[in-house]
Automatic annotation (TrEMBL), chains A, B:
Protein name per the record: Farnesyl diphosphate synthase
Obligatory cofactor(s): Mg(2+)
Xref: Gene3D superfamilies: Farnesyl Diphosphate Synthase
Xref: InterPro entries: Isoprenoid_synthase_dom_sf, Polyprenyl_synt, Polyprenyl_synt_CS, Prenyl_diphosphate_synthase
EC number in record: 2.5.1.10
GO biological process, one term: terpenoid biosynthetic process
Organism: Lentibacillus persicus
Pfam families, sorted: polyprenyl_synt
GO molecular function: (2E,6E)-farnesyl diphosphate synthase activity; metal ion binding
Taxonomic classification: Bacteria, Bacillati, Bacillota, Bacilli, Bacillales
Family: Belongs to the FPP/GGPP synthase family.
Length: 294, 294
């Protein structure tokens, strides 16, 4: 990984970690609920979405405290989606990142409620953010709810479930990933740029960029399922294949999946240049996403 | 029921119904998700929480359009909580209000996602409300997230689950109901009063009132489980007893549960007088809650 990016990621991970700790430590709620929320928030997440948000913000502004609560809220939304996604009625996963999933560690009811709690608390956190204006808070709530709700991530999850029963086309696969994964990336990039003071035109180019970034992330996920090291990716290799999931590799074969990813990388970088953000950490993040090993 | 209250409820139910229809009809989302959300929103709910919100607002202001989106958001949150509460891992209910529960009509995964979608969309709806100022939207998001999240309703649900494994005391039972049911009532009354322009002191008295209103609602629920008509309440009589739930009737016996309810009614009305809202529909709603047959 590019040295500057490596430092950027590790610095910002620490910032987001202490922001998450701050909010959770002060939360006076039933013990089991709190333990379950913290368990999944602490379960080895790479904090990619908050880091992307912060990288996007840093193109336009440097006062990073202004985005920390929003970045923490985003990580909570992402975490809730994993907790619910792992449930027996959904993907039925027992292990995530090498650790028992929430409903395995606790129980199903607790996992459902911890997910609901993380989702709801993310909006509370934004509405209480002392560094944002009311107008900024409203805009962030609006685009976060759109990105994560029935028009966004939840739509992607239900389409993904429906597609599991049949063979999806490449177009259907792109729609699913754009909603299921891409919408939170898009939120990260939009929220960062908006709070940093980017112009609407720049944000439109960044929207294009984030669409491709989400797709790159997903193709690489599918590639790692076949070529990855199980100790590094934290789950058995080939689990998508045995679960008969629709993946890029299944649809295109490994070589053409890699080609597709490189095509997305080119398009992502073009969009980034058009947004005037070609020197930003978002550029090196694109390569990192494309080449990541876990 | 008091004639004026009957008209008030039926008029406001229609208003909230068309508000819900308006938001859902325009929602461009996957068909199955939309059907599942609408199914539970339309499944015979009495719209009590929106009606309470509107009754609270009407003490201070008459321009009822100003609270309709907030009232619709509240009904969505309440509905999501029922959908998740009915899941096999939670209360495992097959029937609600005489109809199959969401996961019985659709499936568990769809019910989980429909609940997530209703919860998230409620915040989107508030953030897009054209009639509220940004400062009002932020305040509503804040108190709604507090009431429904890990400090509020979700805390009540996890405490309720934990209490099922043992015999709860009266105090524990009150805490559970104050969180699980009372917090959304409190939100309804606070949000209505706040948007109507009530003073902070009045809102504090109304907070007291809403605490008792939630408890009255719950004791009557427990009483109806023993004395109700199954055709009217939409579930078998005695289902709480056979599920070994902690109820007021189990804890106190029927006669003392009725006494307890009457005690709550007296305290609720006293708080209402102190809030200067003794002539409002909230007064007759208190009697209605206490005497309801379903």
């Amino acid at each position: 990984m590019h040295q500057g990016l490596k430092e950027f990621i590790s610095e910002n991970r620490e910032l987001i970690q202490s922001e998450l700790n701050k909010h959770l430590a002060n939360l006076d709620i039933p013990v089991r609920l709190k333990e379950s929320m913290i368990y999944s928030l602490e379960a080895g997440g790479k904090r990619l979405r908050p880091v992307i948000l912060m990288a996007s913000f840093r193109n336009y502004d440097h006062e990073i405290n202004r985005v920390l609560p929003t970045a923490a809220a985003l990580e909570m939304i992402h975490t809730y989606s994993l907790v619910h996604d792992d449930l027996p009625a959904m993907d039925d996963d027992d292990v995530r990142r090498g650790m028992p999933t929430n409903h395995k560690k606790f129980d199903e009811a607790t996992a459902i409620l911890a997910g609901d709690a993380l989702l709801t608390y993310s909006f509370e956190l934004i509405s209480n953010d002392a560094l944002l204006t009311d107008s900024e808070k409203v805009r962030i709530v609006q685009i976060l709810a759109e990105a994560s709700g029935p028009k966004g991530m939840v739509a992607g999850q239900i389409l993904d479930m429906e597609a599991e029963k049949k063979d999806a086309t490449l177009e259907e696969l792109e729609t699913i990933h754009t909603l299921k994964t891409g919408e939170l990336f898009r939120f990260a990039i939009r929220a960062g740029a908006y709070l940093g003071g980017a112009q609407d035109k720049q944000i439109r180019h960044l929207d294009q960029f984030s669409r491709y970034l989400g797709l790159i992330f997903q193709v690489q996920d599918d590639i790692l399922d076949v070529t990855g090291d199980p100790d590094i990716i934290g789950k058995p290799v080939g689990s998508d294949v045995s679960n008969e999931k629709n993946t890029y590799v299944k649809l295109l074969g490994l070589d053409r999946a890699v080609q597709k990813k490189n095509d997305y990388v080119d398009k992502a970088k073009k969009a980034l240049r058009e947004a005037g953000a070609e020197t930003s950490h978002l550029m090196s993040l694109t390569d990192y996403f494309s080449n990541r090993e876990r």
